[in-house]
Amino acid sequence: MPELPLACLQALPDSASVEIRETHISWVLLAGEFAYKVKKPVTLPFLDYGTVDKRRFYCHEELRLNRRFAPGLYLDVVELAGEPAVKMRRFDETLRLDEVCRRGGLTQDHLSRFARELADFQNGAALAAAEFGTPERIRSDALENFDELEHLLPAEEASLARLRQWTEAEWQRRHGDFTRRHASGFIREGHGDLHLGNLVLVDGRIVAFDGIEFSTSLRAIDVASEIAFTLLDLLDHEQPGLATWLLNEWLVWSGDFDALAVLRFYLVYRAMVRAKVAALRGDPAEADGYLTLALRLIAPFAPLLSITCGPSGCGKTYLTSCRLASAEFLTTVRIRSDVERKRLFGLAPDAASGGTIYTRRANARTYARLAELTESLLSAGWSVIVDAAFLRRAERDRFRSLAKRLAVPFELIAPQASPDELARRIAARRNDASEATVEVMQQQLRWFEPPGDDERL
Q1: Distance CA 32, CA 397 (A)
Q2: 3-state secondary structure 70-130
Q3: Within the chain, how many helices (H) and strands (E) appear?
């Protein structure tokens, strides 16, 4: 491997105190409040830094692409004795999310804000060229991992064969989904490497850095593949509740429930990528951990349909949030009527409607949409929690019948509270999608049809 040119180091002020970090494709020079990333003069199957002009080009690409996520970190491209380098503002490495997560310091609030910002970024990101994200390319990339892993990890032949077989079968089963997502504009110019080690807390906000600049094909991907990397890393850090929380918050702001049809495929794909990187680094134990995680992801799973019932303020969203946060694995999706009602009328989850979307007709339209989403998600193998009032028995019976038709277990979640407590909770709400007032709650109580004993069976 090449060595760092001494002239690059000497070009920095007080070069004697510079710390040097090395990866297989770059050197990072830590000097005071700044970091300088120098690309190694290497040519590999997936990148070409072979000439100084190419390294300079990719330095500018790294600056351009990563400023989309972290303009405060990525400052400039500078020359160090004729060698281009990306100049960055240095950050506290203990605040990288892999470290924060390991210490138990990553919170739902961190992830909620990140989910919203990621969804907003993806919505505005440039569409990828038509050659990227095709079903054929997705299959080729996935199988390439297995081709390499079979040489790197010969002792894992049985596990790799099982995972390859599942990948082939799932790709065939989801071919239409991949085709639809490609045609519908879900292939975007993203980050490409959104694992926890490339996320850092800056002033309490999660910021992405070190996105891929050297390969368009690795960053021009389905937005579902992008978030799959972060979700997988949370699972690998034994934080299934946080993974479930992140996925559900991302769905609130993106509305991309269609992603759930292909998400499991991408989770397994990302696990294979991580296993390959670990094997190349000479860490078979870490690689084996990712294979074990991938095998769990493909294991058969029996979905469950849960619906809530009760007037505003009774605790439906609180209880279902607790369910998500305490999830044992990434299997459950929540659909909130307050959010999906607004989405039907072109409103953001936190937008005020002025009360115009709460008519009888709008209510029927909302419950129809909830049923449509529920059926598609159950059919895709996800457990579903529908967080809605379900004040009428007919509304509840519709979803019970849906569960019976799809042969999945059904559960009713019906928290209770006194009218005074309902009013107190509603008055205390802040930053919630619900627009219910005390007056609305009192009206709900007048027409509420409480569930009978037979509904609780």
Answers
A1: 65
A2: CCCCEEEEEEECCEEEEEEECCCHHHEHHHHHHCCCCCHHHHHHHHHHHHHHHHHCCECCC
A3: 18, 15
377 lies in some domain: yes
Tokens of 146: 């297995």
pLDDT digits (tens, 9 = 90+) for 36-78: 999 999 998 889 999 999 999 999 999 999 999 999 999 999 9
Sign of the alpha-carbon torsion through 324, 330, 334, 340? positive
Q: Where are the beta strands (DSSP E) in 291-448?
A: 305-308, 332-336, 383-387, 410-413
Q: Are residues 394 and 333 in the same domain?
A: yes
Roughly how many angstroms between the first and final C-alpha of the chain, as a whole number? 67
Q: Report pLDDT digits (tens) over 365-391.
A: 999 999 999 999 999 999 999 999 999
Rounded CA gap, 151 and 213, in Å? 28
Q: Which residues contact 367 (CB under 8 A, 6 or more apart)?
A: 337, 388, 395, 398
> Which CATH number characterizes residue 410's domain?
3.40.50.300
**Greatest extent of the chain over all pairs of C-alpha atoms, in Å:** 80
Q: What is the DSSP string of 287-332?
A: HHHHHHHHHHHHS-----EEEE---TTSSHHHHHHHHHHT-SSS-E
Q: Are residues 39 and 111 in the same domain?
A: no
Q: What is the CATH number of the domain that holds 278?
A: 3.90.1200.10
Q: Tell me: do 42 and 130 sit in the same domain.
A: no
How many domains, the chain? 3
Q: β-strand 26-31 against 19-22: which pairing, if any?
A: antiparallel
In terms of residue numbers, what domain contains 355?
A: 305-456
Q: pLDDT, tens digit, for every residue of 275-287?
A: 999 999 899 999 9
**Do 398 and 442 belong together in one domain?**
yes
Say whether both 154 and 19 belong to one domain: no
Judgement on whether residues 397 and 417 belong to the same structural domain of the protein: yes
Q: Which amino acid is at 17?
A: S
Cβ contacts of 383 within 8 Å, gap of 6 or more: 303, 304, 305, 306, 331, 332, 333
As a whole number of Å, the CA-based R_g of the chain is 25
Per the DSSP assignment, residues forming a β-bridge with 187 are 222
371 and 389 share a domain? yes
Domain end marker among 90, 115, 142: 90
